[in-house]
Amino acid sequence: MPSHGDLVEIRLGPLRAWMACHPDLVRQVLLDTRTFDKGGPLYDRLRPLMGDGLVTCRHDVYRRQRALLRPDFRPAGVSAHTELMGREAESACGRWQAGQEVDVSAEMLALTTRVISRVLFSDSLGDEPAAELRDCLAVIVRGLFVRTAVPVDALFRIPTPANRRYRRAVARVHAIVGDAVGERRAARSAEPQERPDLLETLLAAARGDNGVAAITGQEVHDHLVTLLLTGAESTALCLASAFDLLARNPRAERRLHAEVDSVLGGRRPGAEDLPNLPYTRCVVSETLRCRPPGWLFMRVTTGPARLAGHRLPAGATVLYSPYLLQHDPASFPDPERFRPERWLPEGAAGIPPGAMLPFASGARRCLGDRFAVAEATVTVAAVAARRRLLHLPGPAEQPRPGATLGPRSLVMTSVPRPHGPAGPPPRARSLAPRAAAAPLSHEVRTAGDDGVDDA
To answer: What are residue 430's phi and psi, to 5 degrees?
Structure first.
């Protein structure tokens, strides 16, 4: 598309749409949320699933919703959850036997579902509902993309097996979340007890505690469903992609192993280790560049607008693709190559603003960006310290675009690794953050000047 211009008109069935192909145009769209609001076929299909949560709500209510949830995703809150992230990653790879064929896609989705379930509900959600949620998420994501790409509602009212599976999965997600909220309300009525989770934050807001304007029970439900879906699936795809790409690039894998062996020495990673795992963070950043789980997004003009010299009518659909921007050779030389080193300070400083957008930017950048990067970094480090994951003989699965992008049935062979000695990271060419490191605009969590889920 970029060969046809910076703004390219396309058709989505009967719908006219415009694809922004240049980082400056995408930045203009994302920073002007009043003119380019959430909307279009993608969000029309998401609203029955997520209601009016952070991902799907309009501009006029977004700031109030974000302010309510922001405290739980600040650095201190993320640090408090790293122990949980490391424990779940260690538990997952600890079950893999030498030579076992592991469904990495399923394992990562199970892991991230357990983590986000504990963050949202503490121990209110048992193992069986969490496992059912994981299965429902897989069905929902498969069904979302076709519902977005084919804007003909009548097709999805036909009782085909796929449509019935999708409707059942959506209904079960809502039922499981509703049961968890009801049980917590009942437990609190019987014995008031504060729990350090996001459900407690939302229920306090529903009661109007601490002078906060009360939210409705439906808003509580919508926020939980939104955070559950986005917090599990996108990070799971990022992790599966990371292990897939590492297995295809032995040099990067060896450097990763050297770092985790030196820093961790076989122990579980914690919050205090994250500053000492810069190459692991580079692996996550490069994975998000090569395989952004959120690869295509939409906005709708709230009135007549101008973009790249074109007049757009009110209600026009504007698309942007992090995948397209992040594979532009003008911004990323040799873009098809997996090179974590490009995120070292000396390389990241040359990346144009807005060229890297895994978490969007502007006022609606992803609320969970820090959380997602920390979870991915901790999980990659914990698994790499104990296991190698190798491709099976024959052609490896290629990622398929759906509502999100990534490997959905990646099976790999687990090979144990000896634990390296504990000790400080190598001093040669230290990657540890410094005051003069690359500006924050080039960190993955804030890329795009202001920062797959909430895009």
So the answer is: -60, 140
Residue 305 is assigned to a structural domain of this protein: yes
Q: CA dist 60 to 27, 64, 160, 363, Å?
A: 20, 9, 38, 12
Q: How far is it, in rounded angstroms, from Cα 316 to Cα 17?
A: 7
Going by C-alpha positions, the residue among 238, 253, 252 that lies closest to residue 387 is 253
Give the model's pLDDT for residue 429.
38
Q: Lowest-pLDDT range, 70-84, 100-114, 289-303?
A: 70-84
State which residues form the domain around 360: 2-446
How far apart, in whole angstroms, are the C-alpha atoms of residue 289 and residue 88? 25
Assess if residue 66 is contained within a domain. yes
Domain count, the chain: 1
Nearest of 244, 282, 295, 235 to residue 104 by alpha carbon: 244
Does 454 map to a domain? no
Those residues with Cβ within 8 angstroms of residue 155's Cβ, 6 or more apart along the chain or in another chain = none
Query: Which is it for strands 15-20 and 317-320: parallel, antiparallel or unpaired?
Result: parallel
Is 407 within 8 Å of 241 (Cβ atoms)?
yes
Q: Of 134, 126, 122, which is closest to residue 80 (Cα–Cα)?
A: 122
Supply the CATH number for residue 122's domain.
1.10.630.10
Contacts of 367 (CB under 8 A, 6+ apart): 54, 66, 69, 70, 73, 454
CB-CB neighbours of 133 under 10 Å:
25
Tens digit of each residue's pLDDT (9 = 90 or more) over 183-206: 888 887 777 667 778 898 888 888
Q: What is the DSSP string of 187-239?
A: HHHHS----SSHHHHHHHHHHTGGGPPP--HHHHHHHHHHHHHHHHHHHHHHH
H helix runs in 249-277, sequence order: 250-264
